[in-house]
Specification:
Strand content of chain A: 15-25%
Order of helices and strands of chain B: EEHEHEHEHHEHEHEHHEEH
Shape of chain A: globular
Number of strands of chain A: 4
CATH architecture of chain A: 2-Layer Sandwich
Shape of chain B: globular
CATH topology of the largest domain in chain B: Rossmann fold
Largest sheet of chain B: 8 strands, mixed
Distance between the termini of chain A: 9 Å
CATH superfamily of the largest domain in chain B: Thiamin diphosphate (ThDP)-binding fold, Pyr/PP domains
Radius of gyration of chain A: 11 Å
Radius of gyration of chain B: 20 Å
Number of domains of chain A: 1
Helix content of chain B: 25-40%
Oligomer: heterotrimer
CATH topology of chain A: Alpha-Beta Plaits
Structural class of chain B: alpha/beta
Distance between the termini of chain B: 65 Å
Order of helices and strands of chain A: EHEEHE
Structural class of chain A: alpha+beta
Number of strands of chain B: 10
Number of domains of chain B: 2
């Protein structure tokens, strides 16, 4: 199952990755990060296609998906 | 796995993987953190930076060009802030509108530098208009990346020369009375070798256009329409979806077609091989080289 | 668009190439135009980038540079205006090359933002201001009206270095010195020439090359500082930060905003602000006496002093010599070779109590202000001798001195 890595310190909760995720596996977390934003999270990573869109579209270099 | 704890000042303990483009960025320095970046949540400039770094990464790896040959040159504005202190490259955060002139000096002094001029619509079309036109005319071997959000972001949302007619802003409270520039058309008319426009909703095309532009000799102008969620007061993802629907793929056959309201052309508008400044001047310099 | 004949640029005319001088002027005596001497001095100092815009009376410097730069392996470009000319010097300097431009008053005003940026980012380059009268279009003859603008024309704080040549020889020598100052102190330097000295022809003596000192910026790689340890805005041994070139691998982010020594621009604090700006100010002003060059003659026991700089030196010195010959043995002469930083301490140490200080200037009396401030308790009277649009004649200066000394 692919692993989702979010850099909590950089995410500004813009929601672009959530909207453009091709497998629709991302959703907004209910837990705020240290800067007051709501980063994305996922409990359906088995559906992730590893398309890399989230990473490519992130303005803050805060999300990446990997096999490890 | 990386979910971690939240709360003020708590850093989660976890096995972590960094975004690949962070390799090219300075996240912190001797005098403190530089990340998270200064850009607003959802700002298209962050995305354009991501695409530019991807393009540079491809060229460094495929063409074996040394990373340290790259040089980012910016003026003033939100777009220019990418050069403030984030880049793991030689860079300069210079004067409003004058980045093409600074890049001209750098290239003439050290022609092996790959100069990427980062500019915005206000920086390039208003105060920097003449310098922008002149580097296109001279066809100097640089890449101009214009992040067009159709207003002046850093100073609070004033109209720019690319703001549409009728649209209100802080300096056009009753609606913009002016016509707009089409920066791509200006670049073509002035003489640039490669001209393309895409949006933040076209990541792969942006990266390919930037790669092609950087590789191509002569002036490459790549305009990326970016969303400014703060001043346009819309959700960033919504704005990107709007870009996608408003963008019409260009082809030479379609050129005379009229566009509907709010639509704009995207794609490669020009790809030619006019002589470039440095290679022409080199012929003159070669006259005076010692005959061996 | 018609087809361009690219064969125009093909290497040809080997005769022309053979005749060209591929380096600096060899030692010897020359009879040269002031503007040409300036370019030759720049080439000697290692300048290999010129960007300029046509303006009377500085265009000849640009034209000479256009001819010489490719001969010596440099590049020349005529930019679209003075703003872009000055801005391109910033890029060229950071790419590792000594860079210069020449202009006059109206163009100098346009360059102020670039000078301000260079002061903050500590970028060395040379601007030659071949002064002409102002304000506005003014006229196209000689002037010294931009001497204050050179120091205070750029917005914000910080300091610059400025020199004022008075002969074709000095157009050569002072240009080399200007580049040396720029490289040593990492500051933009202004050469305050004027139309007279730029447009005159005189003898130039180029000494044996080993006798001419050329200073180059200190690079961190030469000091053994690796990129990961390099702080771009941390002075080395209390003087100036070492300056790498773009492409050397130091990945330096050049900024014009107030910054920390590592280049961080977002962790603002009043302490950081004060430290950043006062350092670039003190860098020059605290070393004013070391940097400045002032020449004094007949100062021992003088009761009256004539002060001059730039081309006016010639007439002022002539006036002093004539008056002394005719009996005025208590007349001394002080010449400012550098105008900025103003060497307060040095001037005070050279000048004792006096009656009158006479200061002929091709303006309405500008440098007399810092001089008066410096010698406020030394002299009883400070008399400005203004003249606009042309060089003072020695007679004009003599007449004023006589009027003041006799006519009371």
């Amino acid at each position: 199952m692919p692993k989702l890595y979010i850099e909590e310190r950089y995410c500004k909760g813009c929601g672009i990755c959530i909207e453009f995720c091709q497998a629709k596996v991302l959703k907004q977390s209910k837990k705020m990060n240290s800067r007051g934003y709501f980063p994305p999270e996922s409990d359906e990573m088995e559906k992730c296609k590893k398309c890399g869109m989230c990473s490519l579209l992130c303005p803050d270099f805060a999300i990446v998906v990997s096999d490890e | 796995m990386a979910k971690g704890e939240r709360g003020e000042g708590v850093e989660p303990e976890r096995i972590f993987m960094k975004h690949p483009m962070l390799e090219y960025l300075k996240e912190s320095g001797a005098y403190g953190d530089r990340f998270p970046t200064i850009f607003c949540p959802g700002c298209g400039i962050g995305q354009a930076l991501n695409y530019a770094l991807n393009a540079v990464d491809h060229i460094v790896k495929k063409d074996k060009i040394p990373r340290d040959n790259f040089c980012f040159i910016a003026g003033i504005g939100c777009s220019a802030r990418v050069t403030s202190h984030y880049l793991g490259f030689d860079a300069i955060w210079s004067l409003h509108g004058r980045a093409p002139a600074v890049a001209t000096g750098a290239l003439l002094a050290r022609p092996e530098l790959r100069a990427i001029v980062v500019t915005g619509d206000g920086d390039a079309a208003a105060i920097g208009g003449n310098h922008f036109i002149q580097v296109c005319r001279r066809n100097l071997d640089m890449t101009v990346l214009c992040m067009n959000n159709n207003l002046y972001g850093m100073t609070g949302g004033q109209s720019s020369p690319t703001t549409s007619r009728g649209v209100p802003s802080t300096t056009a409270p009753y609606g913009n009375v002016e016509n707009t520039f089409d920066l791509c058309e200006m670049a073509i008319t002035a003489g640039a070798n490669y001209v393309a426009r895409w949006t933040t909703a076209h990541p792969h095309q942006c990266i390919q256009a930037l790669e092609k532009g950087i590789r191509k000799k002569g002036l490459s102008f790549i305009e990326i329409m970016v969303q400014c969620p703060t001043h346009w007061k819309q959700e960033p993802a919504k704005m990107m979806k709007k870009f996608k629907s408003q963008a019409v793929r260009f082809s030479p056959e379609k050129k005379s077609e009229a566009l509907k309201k709010d639509q704009f052309w995207v794609g490669e508008f020009m790809d030619r091989d006019r002589p470039e400044w440095l290679e022409t001047y080199q012929k003159i310099m070669d006259r005076f080289k010692e005959k061996t | 668009m018609s087809e361009v004949d690219e064969t125009a640029f093909e290497p040809l005319l080997s005769e022309e190439a053979q005749k060209a001088l591929r380096g600096p002027l060899p030692p010897g005596d020359y009879y040269l135009f002031g503007s040409d001497a300036c370019v030759e001095g720049a080439i000697f100092a290692g300048c290999r980038y010129y960007a300029g815009y046509p303006i009377t009376p500085a265009s000849e410097i640009m034209e000479k540079a256009a001819q010489r730069m490719p001969q010596v392996g440099g590049r020349f470009i005529q930019m679209e205006d003075e703003i872009s000319s000055a801005c391109s010097l910033i890029g060229a300097s950071w790419a590792g090359v000594k860079a210069m431009t020449a202009t006059s008053g109206p163009g100098f005003s346009l360059m102020m933002e670039a000078v301000s940026f260079a002061v903050m980012s500590e970028t060395p380059f040379l601007i030659v201001n071949v002064q002409r009268p102002g304000p506005g279009q003014g006229y196209i003859t000689s002037s010294q009206e931009d001497v204050m603008q050179a120091r205070w024309g750029h917005h914000g704080g910080g300091a610059i270095i400025a020199l004022a040549p008075s002969s074709v020889q000095e157009m050569f020598d002072f240009t080399i010195q200007a580049f040396n100052y720029a490289e040593e102190w990492r500051v933009p330097v202004i050469l305050l020439a004027d139309e007279t000295v730029a447009h005159m022809r005189e003898k130039l003596i180029v000494p044996p090359w080993e006798k001419i000192k050329v200073i180059n910026r200190i690079k961190p790689q030469v000091l053994g500082i690796p990129p990961e340890k390099f702080l771009p805005y941390e002075p080395y041994e209390g003087k100036v930060p070492p300056m790498p070139a773009w492409g050397d691998g130091y990945r330096v982010n050049v900024v014009g905003l107030v910054h920390h020594p590592d280049g961080n621009v977002t962790k603002y604090s009043p302490e950081m602000h004060m430290a950043c700006v006062s350092r670039i100010y003190q860098k020059i002003e605290d070393h004013a006496d070391e940097i400045a060059q002032v020449e004094g003659l007949y100062l021992e026991g003088c009761k009256n002093l004539v002060v001059a700089y730039g081309t006016v030196t010639r007439s002022a010195f002539e006036a002093v010599e004539e008056l002394r010959e005719n009996g005025k043995k208590d007349l001394g002469f002080l010449r400012l070779k550098t105008l900025w930083p103003f060497p307060d301490g040095k001037v005070r140490s050279m000048i004792g109590p006096l009656e009158n200080v006479f200061f002929p200037e091709m303006n309405l009396g500008y440098m007399i202000h810092p001089l008066r401030e410096s010698l406020r308790d030394r002299a009883k009277q400070f008399i400005s001798i203004p003249f606009l649009g042309a060089l003072h004649s020695p007679d004009l200066i003599i007449a004023k001195i006589n009027e003041v000394i006799r006519g009371k």
